[in-house]
Amino acid sequence: MLIDFLKQLIFKQQKMTDRNSIKIEFAVQISGAGCAAEVQHALEGSGQVEIDVAKGSVLVETATPWIEIQRKIEATGRRAVLSGFGGQSAVSIVDHGNESSNVRGVVRFCAISADKPGTVVDGVIDNLAKNRPYKLDVHECGDISAGCDSVGDVYDSTEISSDENGRATVRFVSERLAVWDLIGRSVVVTEADTKRRLSCGIIARSAGIFENYKKICACDGVTIWDERDNPLAGGNRGEHKSAL
């Protein structure tokens, strides 16, 4: 009986670990085997790592927030851009209705299973007050025509907190959420005490791993390495070049 119990306990622990780990893919500026070895070394202890030098792809199966994996890769002096996230995935760019707060960030959702509820939520929110409690709410609607006031009622809510730099790094597994049911809804960052809505964004489908090999935007010639240093739109997007 004891042996059976221990076997079941180990199985459950392994299952929880597997469910908490997801595959994330980065496009990385890799020029050869030496570069790949440096990136591999930087990611030691972060999970299972596969590097394709020819494609400039780094695939990591990990339970670590994607922003931390990106930081480790870029500590080697190479720019890294998240290009794929799990299998069935969605993303919310949280930057609407924030004229007074300037709170903004990115929240990603990845299905644990193709046919059952359960989602890994992974993201980062910046420009918050330091060391304060907040809520990351999923609202029932994706209507942001009136900013964060037209997104309907709260569909799901999770407590988060900011660090000493005003950043909230988010990573948890929700058994309640399903990616297919989230698309078209919205994410709202809310002050925990006042319930003031600080910023919001629509949840949309995003690329999974091996689904995005874009290196240059066809509309203006901006590379993925320069993209995050440029405004999202406008005629001067192609003028800025990366310093890294």
TrEMBL record:
Span of domain HMA: 26-78
Sorted UniProt keywords: Antioxidant, Zinc
Catalytic activity: 2 superoxide + 2 H(+) = H2O2 + O2
Annotated coiled-coil segments of the chain: none
Domain of life: Eukaryota
Annotated EC: 1.15.1.1
Keyword Zinc included in the entry's annotation: yes
Gene3D superfamilies: 3.30.70.100, Superoxide dismutase, copper/zinc binding domain
Cited PANTHER family: SUPEROXIDE DISMUTASE CU-ZN -RELATED
Protein name: superoxide dismutase
Higher taxonomy: Eukaryota, Metazoa, Ecdysozoa, Arthropoda, Hexapoda
